Amino acid sequence: MATDLRFGRGARYGAAIALELFATYLATVTDFSAILQAESYSGSIRNDVPIVDAVQFVVIVGVMSAAVLLLPTSGARRVGALTLVCVTFFLWATFGLLRGAGHLIEPAGLWSFVLNQGFVALLASVGGWLIARGRHPLTWLLAAVAVVPAIVGPRLVEANVTSGGYALVMQGIVIVFGLSAVWAGAAIDRMLVSRRDAATRRPGSPAKR
Fold first, then answer.
1. Quick one: which of 47, 49, 58 has its CA closest to 86?
2. Distance from CA of residue 202 to its chain's centroid?
3. 75 CB contacts (<8 Å, ≥6 apart)?
């Protein structure tokens, strides 16, 4: 007799991890500048393919959103994480297009920072994952690792690192800091929960209502 295969909690969690990793990888290796340039200069560059770049952007947002929706968590957490993911990417696209059109010029350092590809990828993936997993609000501060690519990127440019080397370093930073932040969030959450539980079991502590 054949065994029924069910897409249960464990399977959903595994699929969500796979999709999240894949989406973060796409967000890191996809040339975001090509998407913006294709929309800003559509028709003026002979070899531009705006539809391909637009599809890439939609796929990235869609895959990361699907990862959030698949997680076995509450609806409120899904909504919060999905909101962060969509707002992050669509604000990046909006500001990027405005900057490409020459409407956002100063301060140049600020726009280069917030539109950094690694910054966007880490903020959306790490922040969305921590919210969706229901981690302690204190762990949300770990999403600050998103600033690392934005800080390191200009230093690599100043050092005249090749485009290939730049891409490899950025991908390594996103992978290492992203995974470290997610696992650190889980460890901190467990520590805070265990302390809270220990406090509630302590003799003489006020009873829960």
1. 58
2. 39
3. none
